[in-house]
Write a structure and sequence with these properties.
2 strands, 2 helices, elongated, 98 residues, mainly alpha
């Protein structure tokens, strides 16, 4: 994450290596979940940043302790809720493995 003269980040890059959907029915389309997840996480990062990276670059191997997600959600809603859970972890709510 680069920082310009005002202390605001120039660039925020979030790489998700794998999106695992264990415990969800066969009717959940992983492609739609992934697209919804990406759109929502992009929106959240643009609007709120990544608080754990406020002091500079941050590399996280895993997030845990995040809220559970309902198995009955639509693909769109599941992607949105998953992105909110991940952003919550990147905001300091959850456990971070570095």
């Amino acid at each position: 994450m680069g920082v310009n003269g005002t202390g605001e980040p120039r660039e925020i890059r979030v790489d998700i290596g794998e999106l695992v959907l264990d415990g969800f029915g066969p009717g959940v389309d992983p492609g739609r979940v992934s697209a919804s997840f990406e759109r929502e996480l992009t929106r959240l990062v643009r609007e709120h940043g990544v608080p754990l990276a406020a002091s500079g670059a941050l590399s996280v191997d895993a997030l845990s302790g995040l809220p559970p997600l309902s198995a009955g959600l639509s693909a769109r809603r599941l992607g949105q809720e998953l992105a909110r859970a991940v952003h919550s972890g990147l905001s300091g709510r959850g456990e971070v493995a570095r």
